[in-house]
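Notes from the 1:1 (GR / supervisor)

We went over the backlog. Supervisor wanted to see one worked example end to end before approving the batch request, so GR pasted a single chain during the call. The sequence is below; no edits were made to it. Supervisor asked that the structure be written out right there so they could see what the output format looks like.
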Amino acid sequence: MKYKVATLAGLVCVVVVLFFPFSKFLPDKQRYHQHREAPKATELSLETGEDITTHLPLLTLDTQGAAIPGMQREKAFAQSTLQVFDNGTSENRLTDEPKISTFANIKYRGNTSLHFDKKSYLVKLTDKDGNEKGEEMLGMPKHDNWILNGPFLDKTLIRNYLCMNISGEMMEYAPRVRFCELIVNGEYQGVYLLMEQIAQGEDRVDISKYKDGNPFTSYIIRADRGDVPENELNNFTKYTHWMAENTEQTRYVFNIEYPGTSHLTPELVKYIEKDFSAMEKALYSYDYDSDQYGYETFADVDSFVDYFIINEFFQNYDAGLFSTYYYKDVRGKFHIGPVWDFNNACDNYVEEVHDGTGFVLQNRIWYFMLTKDKGFIDRVVMRYHELRKGLLSEENLMQYIDGTIEYLGPAVERNFSIWGYTFDPEQMNRWSVLKPVGRNLTSYDEAVSQLKGFLKKRGDWMDENIETLYQYSHDSKNKKFNH
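Structure output shown during the call:
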């Protein structure tokens, strides 16, 4: 009997040892959904000045009259104070005792969104001497870097909230988000989304922290416009010209986001370039799908499957071009993600119509090779059908939208008391008018109806056409890439 007990105990230990290193990489099953768990509005309140009463957390930024930089993508910040009013009840007022009162360096952030009247902000929390100081913000884990995202082009106000939270249930990590209302230098700015900035950390991108002097490192890479590259990577994809074509107006680069500039030695950059390029060489080789030499040796394939599905489902076609992140723990495999920025998703691009049909990501870097592998397509198809029974089901998405809008309540009307002119295309600039003009929405209800209609159509179309992805892995198309 004692041998049976010992054997059973040994098996338990083996399972624990094998599972524990990977358990931190499981999807966030306990993700907080603000519209389900936070206090709801108890009465209509439309004041937007000093008398504002809101069930949403209320944030203020005050630069004491100093101009806020960022319009020219400069690195400078404005010193500011940040106050957070969040009583955990249905009534938050500026006359309350702030839950947080801290110093913060702020600047405008974004690319196209810099041209919107409603700005988004990068917020770096500091002490009085300007040193980084982390804070828990609206129930999100402690950190010093935050984003205040101002929904402007997205008239529903909820695209990033919806898509980030759905992604966070699917993938290892997606930035946490909370609705709030914002006042900047005494002026009400409407509904905002406080978001975690993508960064290394136990509660963010959970890769090991770099130690000075170590010749190896975990890292985060961002593919994006290269207007002001800081730590540009000379990777294999760049050498093969498979990145998006550079023009006089725009450069596309891979940039090292972590470790930061202060830690990056030439030797460390070379290590990251070599390590990152090894994955790409395996992917672009004739052996891309082999067990011994192929991409699965290097990549966490599930992350690429989920990233493909989430961005295709919402037709978020900045993915694979702009703000596309990759990360790798020094002891692990390559991951794509976290996801970022769904402001243009669900047929909300200014320049072009996305009508809920078609696939695009198979033409993007890395995916143009991944989709040549039938095994990868098998995993995409199987995972898609699984998700359509739950997270991506029409029932779940419609309930999620309805619940979120009900939660926002009077905050929607307050927001459009300031930004209501955006429903008139004649009052908008070229950066924020959808083309053709008939696509522009004339009311909040119409905006919500458009989002729901898109998701229903997209789901129906993908249900019927998901298996057409097999055409990209067929031998007749890929003979020159095969062994």
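Supervisor's comment: The chain is about 30% helix and 20% strand.
Batch request approved.
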